[in-house]
Amino acid sequence: MWRGCALAKQRSVKMVWRLLIILLCSDTLLAQSQCTRVQTLEYGDTLEISLPPDSSAVQLHFSPAIPAQRRPRSQLLMNCSQVTDPKYQPRLSALETGLELLRLTTDDQGAYTVWDEEKGKLLEKICLTVKGHQSFLDLAHGDTLHIPLFANESTIRLLFGSRHEVASRVLVDRGEVTDEAYRGRLSLLPRLCTLQSVTSADTGVYKVVDSNRNIIVTVTLYVQEYRTSGYFPVATVSILGVLFILALLLYCKKRIQRVPQKAVAMVSFAKQSVKEMENDRYSTLEDDDSVSLIEERQDVGKSRQKTGEDRLERPTVSDESCGHAIHSQTDAQPAAEASPQERS
């Protein structure tokens, strides 16, 4: 959230400065309604100005869009096919068909007026806008980024603005890699810069500026997240499925092995409970038998007491009757002993 607020604040400050510059320099801005041709070219392109075949004494005047400090609002670049400004001698030339300005930069933005001195009339007025090259790239993880420089690598700076950083980082300054994190991956070739093995951390905006801080190239890069091949997820899912099936089989096996153990434990518990029930039953029976025996003994004792009392109440028998009874028993015993011999 703090980074978003900082970015919004930075953008608002930039907009305010731009409005102030436009208001201060409104008198020097191009009046496109007065131009005979409005043209927009990119950095490094060539401006071609065609001339009529009968024109001989031609003058070329240049009025910059926003003049720099200590620079005239309008300056003479060419007079009668001769370059008057030494800064434009390597780039400005007169041809049979017209004029040619090579390797345009953002400093070349402005109005180019062509006058015919002999006839005293305006031949052409061109309002030129020069912008940097812009490109939007979508690369995969591990690809190589190619950034065209359109200028000598010893005169440029490469800036990188990440979506996670507020300020831009200087990766290359005048042909040398200044950021240690990019050494080994970032290399400079004639008019070309390459970044190898890009990752998602390289997503952002890359700007190439010249010594005057003119934007030459703007590359907006998006690097896709690293993704495995199509076969790897299938193999991973199949392996996980096999492992899940094996774990399920082992779990079922353990459950099956536990069932007999539980059955044995339940049988032993049932047997033990049956034994305990039988023991309890025997103990209750024994208790009942002992109680019945005690009652029987008590009854026997009572009956004996009653018989003893009856005997005491009966009349006494004489001695003669007792003797007679004894003799009758002794006579009966030899008869009983002789009967088995007779049977034999």
What does this 3D model show about the protein?
The protein is α+β, with helices and mostly antiparallel strands and 344 residues long. It folds into 3 domains: 31-131, Immunoglobulin-like (Sandwich); 133-223, Immunoglobulins (Immunoglobulin-like); 231-295. It has 3 helices and 18 strands. A 6-stranded mixed β-sheet has the order 1-9-8-3-4-5, with no helix packed on it. Strands 10-18-17-12-13-14 form a 6-stranded mixed β-sheet, with no helix packed on it. It has a 3-stranded antiparallel β-sheet with strand order 2-7-6, with no helix packed on it. The chain is rod-shaped. The termini are far apart. The relative contact order is 0.08. The model is unreliable at 21-31 and 316-344 (pLDDT under 50).
Coarse morphology: rod-shaped
> What is the third-level CATH name, the topology of the largest domain?
Immunoglobulin-like
CATH architecture designation of the largest domain: Sandwich
Tally of DSSP helical segments: 3
Cα gyration radius (Å) = 63 Å
Quick synopsis:
This protein is an alpha+beta fold and 344 residues long. It has helices spanning 2-24, 231-313, 319-343, and strands spanning 37-42, 47-50, 58-64, 75-79, 82-83, 92-94, 98-101, 110-116, 121-131, 133-139, 145-148, 157-162, 169-173, 176-177, 186-189, 192-195, 204-209, 215-223. The strands form 4 sheets. It has a 6-stranded mixed sheet, with no helix packed on it.
Topology, please?
Blueprint: H1 2-24, E1 37-42, E2 47-50, E3 58-64, E4 75-79, E5 82-83, E6 92-94, E7 98-101, E8 110-116, E9 121-131, E10 133-139, E11 145-148, E12 157-162, E13 169-173, E14 176-177, E15 186-189, E16 192-195, E17 204-209, E18 215-223, H2 231-313, H3 319-343
Parallel strand pairs: 1-9, 10-18
Antiparallel strand pairs: 2-7, 3-4, 3-8, 4-5, 6-7, 8-9, 11-16, 12-13, 12-17, 13-14, 15-16, 17-18
